[in-house]
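Q: Here's a chain of 167 amino acids. Please give me its 3D structure as tokens.
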Amino acid sequence: MARWRQHAALYSFHTAILQSARNGSRNRVYVSADRADSFAKGFLAFSRGKTVSDDAQAPGIEIGRPQTTYRRIRIESAFGKLTVLVTDGQLPYPYGREVTGYEVANLAATLSKGESAGVTVLVAPYQAEQREAAIVQFPEGTSPKSTHRLTIDFVEGSTDSVRNGWF
């Protein structure tokens, strides 16, 4: 019976994330520096998308390396939003393993609800640029089984807590 309750709580938590996510989930792909341009060019041609930003000095805290910077390419297409993270592949756990993320309206409340449902916070909330993010993992044997990044954006002087949906 306890296992059923845990699954019900996790289902409720995941449903709440999906309902609060603005514009759906976002995909993330980690690419090496020598393949980044060809990957982006090929994906843009295939998806008929557009490059929203290409930041060669993105804050390294987003990939678990706060003392460095890295290249981050953001792409929008009919397939949704994609963040291309250009790294050398030397990332601390759990970075590089989270490939889907959700933007939520209230990160603290979402994390609290998730923890009470058995979700593990792998990376505590941190701030980078105009967003706050955390990485969570669902317990083994549950669905979804993967690691997710949750994020919330802050805009100074705005009552809307969500800015642009990128994480």
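Q: Can you summarize the key feature?
A: The domain at 2-153 is CATH 3.10.180.10 (2,3-Dihydroxybiphenyl 1,2-Dioxygenase; domain 1).
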